[in-house]
Amino acid sequence: MKKYLIFSIVLLGFSAIAQDNRIPIDTTIVTLNSVVIKGKTIPYKATTGMQPVWNTNGKIVASLYYTYYKRTDVKDTSKRPLIMSFNGGPGSASVWMHIAYTGPKILKIDDEGNPIQPYGIQDNPYSVLDVSDIVFINPVNTGYSRPVVEKGEKVDEKYFFGVNADAKYLADWLTTFMTRNNRWLSPKYIIGESYGGTRVMQLANELQSRQWMYLNGVIMVSPADYKIIRSGASEDLAMNLPYFTATAWYHKMLPADLQQKDLEEILPEAELFSYNELLPAISKGGNITSEERNRVADKMARFTGIKRSVLLQQNLEMKPSFFWKELLRDTSGKTIGRLDSRYLGIDREEIGTSPDYSPELTSWLHSFTPAVNYYTQNILNFKTDVKYNMFGPVGNWDFENEDARENLRQAMAQNPYLQVLVQSGYYDGATTYSVAKYTMGKIDPSGKMRNRMTFKGYRSGHMMYLRKEDLEKSNEDLRVFIKKSSENIGPAKY
């Protein structure tokens, strides 16, 4: 589509107090464009630039790079939803969902998400821009976002780089954004991928309790729950099993009777086994009887494609990293991907307990990096010599006093409007779909808000939207969720 540059305003200009003074502290660049979504032309305005972060003393301590897409043929924004979008890491830019999922432009990749040349971008016919405006935000040290310090001073890492600090300053930033863009009356949504799941669980309560900004929806894409992930607890070890089943099914490593079934037929069986048999067995540790250990090992082998003897050698406590190395060791000798286990890798040696590298991540960086640099500078017209940080330095991230589940529970309890959508890929081995479902139950242990939570699974990995079929399906699920939670709601009461 043809693009028109409207204007570029530099409000504070380039400043010597910026950590990298090639980045303006407060600026907007606006372009006009359009995209065809579901057969209809959607005109939109793209505003990109930098917006400051102020501390409690009114001093600028950082400037965040953002891109805001607003449909231009809708005049009444009081009924027009707004999605505030974050990725994860922590330390990851918003690039992933921006140019591959919900935005009006997506990567040029094949239908399964693999890079192709020439690199670039194309229109996204499935974008949710038809039903919602979207702003993509890059936290400090991601994308072009940077701290701002006086000469001779050091960056205050505690202000930015921690679970609670992150939510606090981002909530402040969002309040400024809402005021500047006159969006206080709009239905509001926050979406976060991976660590972004923890981020938006934190943000939901931070926005409502300290900014008095009430939300219609919280959307978590492949969410990371740090109460369980990499904890080594029995729940972490047991709840990953359905992911092992999905991946073994994809690579045709299950017994014939399971392999001939559809994936979504066998996953409920695997989920029940993980809850009702594997979790109790692992929890018993050395107190388990030999009879129960052997019985559980037999079933575990059936659902994972891993030899019974190997599972017993690990006391039934198989870590995902070992699974990625072991599943195809005796067949092709290849490893499988962490974030998307459909991808294959080649290690130096077939022996070992974990892969040498993540083949899916190298594939994604292959296609995303040239595309976002081209798009930002040539289409959005944000010109800079500063490196776009796909992953940026965020210090020693502070997880102390992390209570994301409870923060989201409180936000939901205090706001009857607030709905939750969780989207996960079955082949994601980093933040598994089965752990995401487990987390949903832990957010609301009473079960009283269960009808306000929705789970959607997809036949792909961490970034399910890279697979064309799931790009369409996941965006449609978002579209349905947004429409349902923003139209004809009625009074906010129980």
TrEMBL record:
An individual GO BP term: proteolysis
Cited Gene3D superfamilies: alpha/beta hydrolase
Protein name: Carboxypeptidase
Signal peptide: 1-18
The species this protein was found in: Polaribacter filamentus
InterPro entries cross-referenced by the UniProt entry: AB_hydrolase_fold, Peptidase_S10, Ser_caboxypep_ser_AS
Record key words, sorted: Carboxypeptidase, Glycoprotein, Hydrolase, Protease, Signal
Record keyword Electron transport present: no
Alphabetical list of Pfam families matching this protein: Peptidase_S10 (PF00450)
A molecular function GO annotation: serine-type carboxypeptidase activity
